[in-house]
Amino acid sequence: MNYITKIAASLMAGILILSSCGEVEKQDFKDSDAYFAFETSKSVMLENDIRTLRIPVSLAKSTGIGEVTFEVVTEGFDNPAVEGEDFTVKTSNKTVAFEGDWVKNIEIKMIDNYVRDGDKKFKLLLKDNNIGAGIGMANNANTEHIITISDNEHPLAGLIGYDFQATEQSIATDADGIQIAPYTLDVEIRPDTVAGRDDRLLVKGLLGVPQELCMVFDTETGVVSMEGEKYYNVIDPYFGIAIELTFYGWHYGDYDEENDKPTIVRDLVTVGTFDLEAQEIIFDAGYLAQITGPSTHPYVGLSYTTLIIEHCRIAKK
């Protein structure tokens, strides 16, 4: 278990124990209420990503047997993707066949057109099935899934991709007072989908958290920054509980005589440098991440901890 998950574990363990108490009422599910539905509502994929996009579809039924069809819809988008030019559907006959499992994937493959033509979108819409089940959940929820294909022909193209890795050095020490060794984490970087913001990239994987952080790049100065921003409903990588996460810059303040160590001061903006040719982003002074339990949770509320990274390098593997 790495340092991040250890910290998260110590924060959340007691919470989960408390929140798991109590009896769960037994609820019977009737096959007359069976339905097919997407498990997620959207996906984002780089056009040059060689991996297959897998979109899970679930069948709520006592026996996982049945078929549901889907269609590709491009109407209603300002810059629609074109099947056969921007993507291909690998799922045969646009039919998801359940043969005993309750979750199956629709498979989509991206096509790189090597042209700077912006992000494109399309959606999948569940249609008919052969077992008389419903389509979607209550109020037609989860009947469609929107896919954004991110254009990789970008001014910051050298820093875009799924094959990056972050090396983070924490200031933390172990029980013997020895500084914890640096660790590496897989990182994915994609363009921001906001039109006209080619200076922003979304970075996922820092601190081992599956949350995208917005970084702003100044190509004239080579400076990259992250503004202090709170991200809600971040899923903790160890326990899967929702937390709140805020990134800050930081520096040492006045010496704390009582605790025999300098104080930690938070800065609103985290600043680093980047090199397009070397394909790397460096936060030489690192960053501070504050983890806070959501206020709606009866046992977390005001609980929080901080993780301080004194150096981070993000680069191609």
Overview of this structure, please?
The structure is a single chain. The chain is mainly β and 317 residues long. The protein is 5% helix and 49% strand. The chain has 1 helix and 22 strands. It has one helix spanning 3-19; strands spanning 35-38, 42-46, 53-60, 65-73, 87-89, 95-99, 103-110, 120-129, 134-135, 144-150, 161-170, 183-191, 200-204, 212-218, 223-227, 230-235, 242-256, 261-267, 269-275, 280-283, 287-292, 304-316. Strands 11-12-13-14-15-19-20-22 form an 8-stranded antiparallel β-barrel. Strands 5-7-3-1-9 form a 5-stranded mixed β-sheet, with no helix packed on it. A 5-stranded mixed β-sheet has the order 2-10-8-4-6, with no helix packed on it. A hairpin with a 4-residue loop joins strand 14 (212-218) and strand 15. The longest helix is centred in the N-terminal third of the chain and has 17 residues, at 3-19. The chain is globular. The two termini are 22 Å apart. Residues 1-26 have low confidence and may be disordered.
- Provide the β-strand percentage band: over 45%
Instruction: Encode the helix/strand succession as letters.
Output: HEEEEEEEEEEEEEEEEEEEEEE
Strand order of the largest sheet: 11-12-13-14-15-19-20-22
Structural class: mainly beta
- Share of helix among residues? under 10%
Distance between the termini: 22 Å
Principal-axes geometry comes out as globular
The radius of gyration computed from the alpha-carbon positions, rounded to a whole number of angstroms, is: 23 Å
The helix tally amounts to 1
Main sheet specs: 8 strands, antiparallel, barrel
Find the count of extended strands (DSSP E, 2+ residues). 22
Low-confidence stretches: 1-26
Mean pLDDT: 84
